[in-house]
Write a structure and sequence with these properties.
The structure is a single chain. The chain is of the alpha+beta class. It is built from eight helices and seven strands, in the order H-H-E-E-H-E-E-H-E-E-E-H-H-H-H.
Length: 601
Amino acid sequence: MQKLADMSLKLRLAIAMILMLVTVCVVLQFIASRLAKDYLLQDAQVRQDISLRVMATLFEDTFTGLDVRYASDGTISRAIWGDIPAIDSHDLIDQVGSVSGETATLFVWDTSENDYRRVTTNIIKPDGQRAVGTYLGQQNPVYAAIQRGETFRGEAVILGKPYLTIYQPVFDGSRNVVGILYVGVERTVIDAAIAGQQSTMLMASLIVTGLGVVAILFLTARMLSPISAVSAAIARIAGGDLTTDVPHDGQAHEIGEIATRVSMFKVDLLRTRELEQERQVAQQEQSKVMEILRDGLARLAQRDLTHRIESTAANPFPADYDALRQDFNAVVDSLSRTVSDIDDIAAEVTSAATGIASMSDTLARRVETQAATLAESSATLGSLSDTGKQIADKAANADDMARKSLNLSTQSRKDLEEATRAIKEIENSSGQINQIIAVIEDIAFQTNLLALNAGVEAARAGEAGKGFAVVASEVRGLSKRATDSAREIRTLITASQSKISDGTSLVQTTATSLEQLLAQVEQMGSLIQDIAGSVKSQAVGQSEVSAGVQQLDHMTQENAALGEEANAAGVTLKSEAMQLSDTLRQFKTAGKRQRANPRAA
């Protein structure tokens, strides 16, 4: 980048234009190559479509049963061949190749191999034989497209050579693919044509670029020659020759405008030279004024406020700067009066600062004592507030425990009532069971009577009623066992009723005692709630009082700190006032009054 910046404008402009020309040629070369490639590929596709139509037309004219249908753009949309005959001669396929100049093949479906076999083709294998009898291959992407009944257009490798191909499926009457019409263009031929065109265009681009470079160098030298002349004139002017004529001055082009501006710059330089001479005279007067002012400021720096700058006939002050001399004298007069006034004020401030320092010291000691006492009170009250909070927390816990006991007692009362109700229901159920037992006894008695009558009737029947007599005997035994069981159940129910009655009495007694206990628990809960509320209110009041005392303690501490700061400020003010008086005494003013030293007080 530095080397490019060091080059002349002529060379840089030539390089920029050459690079631009080369870029344009490269872009045009790329576009032309791309267009040529697309054109050749489109031309190959058109040739393929023509070759496929030629092949379909020849086969349709030669063989019966082949029906070829065409789309609106002239391409084959569907080929139907119900029964493809055996083809022994390759004259027809050779005729297709001679007409179109491309490769062509007819495939027929081979059921045993589940693949498509070449039955006639003009493709020659490397050994010089036709590729008849070879198969398409199930791994070939064409195979999957044909099986779906789709026309395949694209690049395929056949016997090791790339081809741009069209595979048109041939259907039978049942819409099964039974064959393929193939035409292809060898890709190497197209690539060779594309490479030839690209070489031709590249050579043309190089020739055009070379001619353009020569033209650019010539035009650049011709167009920039006025700049060199103007540059030489500028160099002479820079060397101090202001009589040099600037070439191309007044011309209408850009270089003429530059020359015009250089001429104007030359005129400005002439004026500047005259002004420089005048500036040197003014600089001499300015140096004299600065020397006098430097001496006056040096006397002022030494705190001498009696010095004045004078202008006499023998040594006149420059007239252009006389206002500055008068301003300096006025400043010294004003400063002298101000220092005198400040000296008087400093004495009064020193006296006042002494009194302030004494009062601030007394106030600071009193505030410190008050702050210490208040801090002890705040600590004691804080401890009392913490104890009150602990008591309030314990009272709250007792209140919670009383509430829980009251809830448990209430629940126990409900459970006891439920138990009493259940015992009464059991007692009622026992009475119902007695009724059921009575019914069972009646049924057993009636069954016994029926069995007895059945036995009597069986005895009357003789031999024919023996079986019925056995059944009657069993029924009587069953009736007797039912009667005995009912009696035992009645005995148990009677004993249970007695125990249930005793349990009912005990539950009622327990309920009475529990109600009395619940009443006492409720009273104790109310009393604990009142105690907890009072303790909580007391704790809140103690917290508020403690917070107020702590705030008061904090404010007292701040007041103590402010008292100490005021005391320190008073001492500092007194010291600064004395130092100010000492400093002001170093100034020398006209008619200065003598004053006693305040430090002696």
